[in-house]
Amino acid sequence: MLEQYDLQNLLVLDIETVPQYKNFEEVPDNLKKLWDLKTINQRKEISADEFYERAGIWAEFGKIICISVGIFKSGRETGLRVKSFYSHDEKELLENFADLLNSQPASLILVAHNGKEFDFPYLCRRMLIHGIKHPSQLEIAGKKPWEVNHLDTMELWKFGDYKSYTSLNLLTAIFDIPTPKDDMDGSMVGHVYWNENQLERISTYCQKDVVATAQLLRRYRGEELIVDECITIVE
Q1: CA gap 192, 87 in Å, rounded
Q2: N or C: which end of the chain has fewer CB within 10 A?
Q3: Beta-sheet pairing, 231-234 with 79-86
Q4: Higher-scoring residue by pLDDT: 43, 180
Q5: Using an 8 Å Cβ cutoff, are 35 and 29 in contact?
Q6: Other CB atoms closer than 10 Å to residue 185's CB: what's the count?
Q7: Nearest-angstrom CA–CA distance, 93 and 27
Q8: Candidates 3.30.420.10, 3.40.50.720, 3.40.50.800, 3.30.70.260; correct CATH number of 7-18+68-234?
Q9: pLDDT tens digits, residue range 192-206?
Q10: Is the pLDDT of residue 69 over 70?
């Protein structure tokens, strides 16, 4: 499976997102009303105020605080170079990430877990909001489905079955890949960012998800995991 892909032409990524405001009280009144309307079906018995901690899931009400990427490297053993872009300034963060993609071939394939439902559209929406031109690897308008160079490790696991979500944590467990959830999980990111101001900790967590996704690709290809000594974190 996936043997047709050149690993060095893949870029594995993961993003971390949080609500745009620390709490619901800080949200402008017009957006409070729109948040109430947007989430009314999901909230059920929960108030719009209480539900706001989940606002990072929606690109209209959240923001990206970290993007981690991984590039495979060849050699005697396959390696992985991992780098994070993180900032309180979302526009600056997205511009730096766009610069990276613009420096790469248009044929570069982007890989993420649940990327087609979350990471890729979220990146595109937030770039559009900030007036940042989409790099060619993210531009899908006018393209046929088979012309879009995006791989989704969750979609690949479905094998055409569309009725369930399979977490990266579950897949790493069944494929015996070291878990990326040893320090925190996605539900904690907003609290760690807004209440503990630990952006570097979030970056480390995001990097672990990138490594786990890259390792999952190796398992899909029937290959050995990348050894720790061949994984490099680039500052």
Answers
A1: 14
A2: C
A3: parallel
A4: 43
A5: no
A6: 13
A7: 22
A8: 3.30.420.10
A9: 999 999 999 999 999
A10: yes
- For 180, the token pair is 């990326």
Residue 7 token pair: 């690993």
Do 4 and 38 touch, CB atoms closer than 8 A? no
Cβ neighbours for 165, distance < 8 A, ≥ 6 positions apart: 114, 154
DSSP state letters, 175-193:
TT---S-SS--GGGHHHHH
Q: How far is CA 116 from the centre of its chain?
A: 10
151 three-class SS: strand
Q: Is the pLDDT of residue 183 over 80?
A: no
The radius of gyration of the chain's CA atoms, rounded to the nearest angstrom, is: 18
- Which segment of 14-23, 95-104, 180-189 scores lowest on mean pLDDT? 180-189
Q: Which parts of the chain are beta strand (E)?
A: 10-19, 62-73, 79-86, 109-112, 150-152, 231-234
How far are the Cα atoms of 38, 46, 173 from residue 32, in angstroms, in the given order? 10, 15, 39
Helix (H) or strand (E) holding 206, with range, is helix 199-220
- Contacts of 228 by beta carbon, 8 Å cutoff, 6+ apart: none
Domain ranges of the chain: 7-18+68-234, 21-60
**Tens of pLDDT, residues 112-155:** 999 999 999 999 999 999 999 999 999 998 888 888 999 999 99
Question: Tokens 């399979």 map to which residue?
Answer: 166
pLDDT of residue 136: 95
